[in-house]
């Protein structure tokens, strides 16, 4: 089951299969609790529904600043064999945005380093996502 949350104009949060939370604070608390559990699960990501870490990806947080994204790209690319996939003509160049480029190289770093939670921290500007693969078109996430 995928957890999908939306915030309505009445300040209610709809989570998944019709469950309503009256206060967005509860939603935020749940988000950080999930993040805390993943972070403190002994390093390797293990999900309650049985999914394995191999079915997880590291992406940039939507609220990450341009400076954070640039720093993440620089850090990841300095620690990878190459970052040609986000250069013009590369399989992940389009869309040509910082958040997409950062997510691609951050995930590559996360995957090559063993998919440990600490390999997807990036100064708290990253998220581990599952089970939906963020790959698109010719851009394949590892």
TrEMBL record:
Assigned keywords, A-Z: Glycoprotein, GPI-anchor, Lipoprotein, Membrane, Signal, Transmembrane, Transmembrane helix
Compartments it resides in: Cell membrane
Keyword field contains Lipoprotein: yes
Major location category of this protein: membrane
Residues passing through the membrane, by range: 25-45
GO cellular component term of the entry, any: side of membrane
Keyword Transmembrane helix among UniProt keywords: yes
Protein's name in the database: X8 domain-containing protein
Protein source organism: Canavalia gladiata
């Amino acid at each position: 089951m995928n957890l999908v949350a939306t915030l309505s104009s009445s300040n209610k949060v709809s989570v998944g299969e019709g469950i309503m939370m009256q206060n967005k604070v509860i939603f935020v608390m749940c988000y950080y609790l999930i993040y805390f559990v993943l972070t403190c699960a002994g390093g390797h990501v293990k999900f309650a529904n049985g999914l394995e870490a191999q079915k997880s990806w590291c992406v940039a947080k939507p609220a990450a600043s341009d400076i954070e994204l640039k720093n993440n790209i620089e850090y990841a690319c300095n620690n990878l064999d190459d970052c040609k996939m986000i250069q013009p003509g590369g399989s992940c160049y389009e869309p040509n945005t910082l958040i997409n480029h950062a997510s691609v190289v951050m995930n590559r770093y996360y995957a090559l380093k063993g998919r440990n939670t600490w390999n997807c921290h990036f100064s708290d500007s990253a998220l581990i996502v599952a089970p939906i693969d963020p790959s698109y078109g010719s851009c394949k996430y590892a």
